[in-house]
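Hey Z.,

So I finally got round to the adenosine-5'-diphosphate thing we talked about over coffee. Here's the setup:
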Amino acid sequence: MEPTDDVAPANVLEARPRRGAARMPAPSIVMRDQPQVEVLSNPDLLQSRSAVDAVALERGGMVDWSRTRSRISEEFRLVQRQILRTAFGPGSDPGFSNLLMVTSARPGEGKSFTSVNLAGSIARQGDHHVLLVDADSKRDSFCYALGLAESRGLLDLVSNPKLDPAPLIVKTPIERLSILPVGRERERSAELFSTKEMTRLIQSLGRRYADRLLILDAPPCLSTSDPAVLAPVVGQIVFVVEADRTQRDEVEASLDLIQACQTITLVLNKQQISSRYTFGAYSSYYSS
Ligand SMILES: Nc1ncnc2c1ncn2[C@@H]1O[C@H](COP(=O)(O)OP(=O)(O)O)[C@@H](O)[C@H]1O
Ligand SMILES: [Mg+2]
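And the result:
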């Protein structure tokens, strides 16, 4: 697909779901076109010790961030500015505001795409380290694409609180981006996610890595209780809405479930603009 310029101006707002007049703002991220991974041609990055190679990053949806003028970088930059302000700006709460959960109503709406690209974009362009946490144990989680399906991670840490998280964190060829895989205890994931240990673990990871942005790629709100359980312990949520697919009542039901979080940013994904498939900007309001 050709890069497109005919994307509506991006608009990033904060949503605080309230009964009666929930806001539905949306930043935007462009549909990726020809995936390229620039790090392959950068010898410095190739020399860095990492368990995730550049090809795996490409497979996982890591786009060509090096083309700084590319539309996708622009779109993610708009979203990330707001996220970083909430995470580290004036009035932020270190160890809490830096915990960001990405969720949506249903599977397939672009949570992992958003998490992975947001993480990469912030790590590449900002001053902040990003720890991308795979918190979705489904087979299409981004860890599978990155070849990390068999690595220990989040679920192992929950089932064994004595385990040190540091050795489980995987480096990537992008200097400020590292990954905590979902882990090996996936058959027990439903049970483990609902435990107090999971919320305690997320809180302790937030505090331990207070200087990093932790992006949790979570499951959908309407098929698991995980986002609702985690909502009170994360500082912010990015809620992905798929254009022409996610229904308004699904958005409303999901926002009700995660309303314990005070800062929810809605993004509209896969918007069709001028017959091209993009992640275009969009903003609207609705009342319940
Ligand atoms: N803006 C986008 N541009 C291109 N492909 C996208 C976009 N958003 C999602 N996809 C693709 O759609 C599929 C589902 O997205 P994914 O992020 O895995 O959904 P979820 O994590 O919500 O289940 C994946 O193949 C992903 O690469
Ligand atoms: Mg996913």
